[in-house]
Specification:
It is a single chain. The protein has 390 residues and is of the alpha/beta class. The chain has two domains: 236 residues, FAD/NAD(P)-binding domain (3-Layer(bba) Sandwich); 88 residues, D-Amino Acid Oxidase, Chain A, domain 2, CATH 3.30.9. The protein is 32% helix and 26% strand. The chain has eleven helices and 18 strands. Helix 2 packs parallel to helix 7. It is globular. It binds flavin-adenine dinucleotide. The site of flavin-adenine dinucleotide (FAD) has 44 residues, from helix 2, strand 12, strand 16 and helix 11.
Length: 390
């Protein structure tokens, strides 16, 4: 049973954010920048964020050449261009918020490895540079074929390298720890081990139910408004929501002597990605090799995907190098057909901001900012119910 004091000081807030990943924390950060006196609660079910934001590869990226071409095919040039702009804005916002050191930012540039199967993409390099010129003011992509040998990649398989000097890498764990701390310093209350099990609404407030692991009683937090930032796990609360989970599996090697490359690297429309972490190599992806099995919220790794990663690592990325696999893990992303985040008012008090389609470092801050502005919007959302707000 709650005490008088607990009821007075732990239960009622102006705004509650469900989910302590990059979107939830960015929403809290933007809310408190816009309204520093607001009482903001973040409810996170894990002991720390437990979805994608602490498990990702740390690419501060906005799309490789073949990934952008694939997006244009799926959603058209205007929508793909708008998405790149949101990603780029998000990256700037994140840097302004934390500064480069607290996110472990290293501006080493990004590359895409092309093979005979997809090297025809370079015919589209100039049109894509033109498309992005108004955003970046310069040509984004250029060819760096000569580096294939210097980087030690298989020359039999890799036929072209596309370079992008605006891409960078971050230290994912450092970034999230600092974002967590930033939000606390701004005055938010962050509770972990707090899984929201259901949501209700009445005339006065929105009510979020959490079972206390200490007493097994259901605690009902209340707020003026709430935002769901629960990414791939949203379906547990809203089974009809239109998004699919997608597992991302990753491995990291032991230190590699004289590792010949640094930076972030993409292959096959971004379905494979690798980077150096000091002198180790982090390599992930391969979800497209088994879509059915990888459409899951299960955090286990599988032999099929890890074998595919190991095979490419030894044959394409690190041929003739000695290393071992030091660690493997998986994180869970959320995808939809529109390829853009889902930003929606579900009721007059409940918003959802989720589904970052695998590029949340870039877009998480801008989505959080838009969510915060909507939470603060003094107009009732009635005219927007169930309308996408993107
Ligand atoms: C392996 C991998 C590699 C990736 N690499 C990159 C990359 O290099 N660059 C990039 O930009 N993006 C990358 N991504 C994608 C990026 O990590 C995600 O897009 C982003 O982290 C999503 O952030 P989020 O806050 O929406 O979701 P999450 O980080 O999943 O946060 C959602 C949070 O909600 C919590 N939650 C869920 N349900 C409840 C509930 N009922 N009650 C309370 N809490 C709840 C979860 O525990 C979780 O912490 C990668 C993802 C993976 C998995």
């Amino acid at each position: 049973m709650l005490s008088f004091w607990e009821k007075q000081h732990f239960i009622h807030y102006d705004y509650i954010i469900v989910g302590g990943g990059i979107v939830g924390l960015s929403t809290a950060a933007s809310l408190l920048s816009l309204r520093p006196d607001a009482a903001v609660l973040v409810l996170e079910r894990g002991l720390f964020p437990t979805g994608a934001s602490t498990k990702n590869a740390g690419f501060a990226c906005f799309g490789s050449l073949t990934e952008i071409l694939a997006d244009i095919k799926k959603i058209g040039e205007d929508a793909a261009g708008a998405l790149i702009e949101q990603r780029w804005q998000g990256l700037q916002q994140l840097q302004q918020r934390l500064g480069p050191q607290r996110m472990g930012l290293q501006a080493l540039g990004g590359y895409e490895l092309l093979t005979t199967a997809n090297e025809s993409a370079i015919e589209q390099l100039e049109p894509i540079n033109q498309l992005l010129k108004s955003l970046f003011g310069t040509n984004i992509f250029s060819l760096k074929k000569s580096l294939i040998t210097a980087f030690g990649f298989s020359k039999e398989i890799v036929t072209q390298l596309v370079y992008n000097d605006k891409e960078a890498q971050v230290d994912t764990g450092l970034l999230m720890r600092h974002l967590w701390r930033y939000v606390q310093e701004k005055g938010a209350t962050l509770l972990t081990g707090a899984q929201v099990e259901n949501i209700e609404e009445n005339d006065q407030a929105i009510l979020l139910h959490v079972t206390s692991s200490a007493t097994q009683e259901t605690i009902c937090f209340s707020a003026e408004r709430a935002a769901l930032c629960t990414n791939a796990f949203t379906k547990k609360l809203l089974p009809d929501i239109s998004l699919q989970p997608g597992r991302g599996q990753v491995l990291i090697t032991t230190p590699v002597k004289d590792l010949p490359f640094q930076g972030t690297f993409h292959m096959e429309e971004g379905f494979f990605y690798f980077r150096n972490v000091g002198n180790r190599v982090l390599f992930g992806g391969g979800r497209h090799l088994d879509y059915a099995a990888e459409t899951t919220t299960d955090f286990n790794v599988t032999e099929k995907i890890i074998n595919a990663l190991e095979d490419r690592l030894s044959n394409i990325i690190l041929p003739n190098k000695e290393y071992k696999i030091a660690q493997q893990w998986a994180g869970i992303m959320a995808f939809n057909a529109a390829r853009k985040p889902l930003l929606k008012a579900l009721t007059s008090r409940l918003l959802i901001g989720t589904c970052l389609n695998g590029m949340g470092i870039a877009i998480g801050s801008s989505l959080g900012d838009r969510l915060a502005k909507l939470l603060l919007d003094s107009q009732p959302y009635s005219y927007k119910y169930n309308a996408e707000l993107n």
